[in-house]
Amino acid sequence: MSISSFWLCIVTILVGHQANLAPCHAKDSLQIKIFETSRAGAKLMERTHEHLSSANDSELPTIRIQKEQRFQKIFGFGGAFTESTAYVLNQLDSEKRKEVINSYFSPAGANYSLTRTHINSCDFSLDTYAYANTASDINLVDFSVEPDLDDLVPLIQDALAVPHAEFKIIASPWTAPPWMKDNNLWYGGSLKSEFYPTWALYFSKYIQEYEKLGIPIWSVTVENEPLGNGAQWESMIYTPATMADFIKNHLGPRFQEDGIDTKILIYDQNRDHLKQWVTEVFSDPEVAKFVYGTAVHWYSSTVEWYPEVLTEVHEAFPDKPLIETEGCIDAEIPHWQDDDWYWSKEATDWGYDWAPEEDKHLHPKYVPVYRYARDIIGGLNSWLSGWVDWNLVLDDKGGPNHAKNWCIAPVLVKPETKEVYYTPLYYVMAHFSKFIRPGAIRLGIDCEAKDLMVTACSNPNGSIAVVALNQTEKAVSYKLVCDNLHTTLTIPAEAIQTIVLD
């Protein structure tokens, strides 16, 4: 072999190696897939395949993927298994019920990857219940998850059985049994200090009993909404100090003793008080060592996703992931078979009527589709590592639930006729859950298209998913750039788009 041939071989090997490291450099064009949901009627519609080209003669605003900028790992996206959801699905025949479950958990559907459920009853249960009802049973001899066996457990088991389903479960208590509380009620009140050890044991038994049923619990939150909910339904109050005490001296050691590797998340309420909570709880390293991360909700505003708060908390505690564990269109009775309502600025939340006057500006009327997409994109770009919707399915009246706390779910069922309605919210969730997979890493984005919100993630399989939201009444054309490759794309008016670069 001549010297020149030798070096040609070496160069060829090195170029090939670099191509494997940086897929956008692998060739002069790169196949992409485009999926679109719009007010005009597209529902996760796949558009004609286009390709990125090294040609670059466009003067359009640029959206540039910065692959060298790598941020948080993504756990996934999904919704919650509640007793209400399970009950409604059981009103359908077996084939229709299976269709809905597959639509959420199959790779051919939304492919949900992060979910939540409740420990004891919650507002979206048919009634109040607990797993231990014998007063002063401190060793929980009578503990049983039997109340979940009719509806809730079979639903989760069937979801887990969907071929190639892949999802984690977060479990949250709304309250301890009343006999453990200082007011002896389901609503409000606090856990009595003498029952801290028993309540920690309760978590352990719950996780072990669910494991026996083939349901692994990935993480628990210490309490759903520890600031309370006005004692309207199941609730139990903590301060940052009492939650820290419970974790440090009871829940963390209990999990250690019982060999439980389920992760512990703190807070689990709205973002407006997030910084105070995490600062106080994580200030003690003996507490922080037991805590994996922090859970948040979205109900403090219909328009604000609190990027400054989320970013400040991440920067203060970069090793503690932030996960959105609950958000929904609350205080609304569902609009049945009316797609356009979900694209209209007509929805109101609890705060529209009930927020203090100084907070009213945070609760204007809003577009449901935009609220979901904006919060997820903005949240991802502000360090959220996962996003969980509330009920997977509700009936056309927004229930059932014993608290009369009517809400909307992405999938609705009319029990009398056995009809199923996939609202536009289902497709919005799928734009993220289907294409941004567990283990994905958020990438940097430079976006010159001021009318768009955009995020991008690199998946474990090497693909890159870019999600763009256009809230304006006009189509927006832009130039998508990945390394030295470019293409011109257009997102229609009032639309969400996912672009997958293979």
Automatic annotation (TrEMBL):
Q: Which GO terms describe its cellular component?
A: membrane
Q: What's the superkingdom here?
A: Bacteria
Protein's GO biological process: glucosylceramide catabolic process
Keywords per UniProt: Glycosidase, Hydrolase, Signal
What this protein is called in its record is: O-Glycosyl hydrolase family 30
Q: Which InterPro entries match?
A: GH, GH30_C, Glyco_hydro_30, Glyco_hydro_30_TIM-barrel
Tell me a Gene Ontology molecular-function term this record carries.
glucosylceramidase activity
Say which family it is in.
Answer: Belongs to the glycosyl hydrolase 30 family.
Where does the Glycosyl hydrolase family 30 TIM-barrel domain start and stop, copy by copy? 75-436
**Keyword Transport in annotation:** no
Residue limits of the Glycosyl hydrolase family 30 beta sandwich domain?
439-499
Upper classification of the organism: Bacteria, Pseudomonadati, Planctomycetota, Planctomycetia, Pirellulales
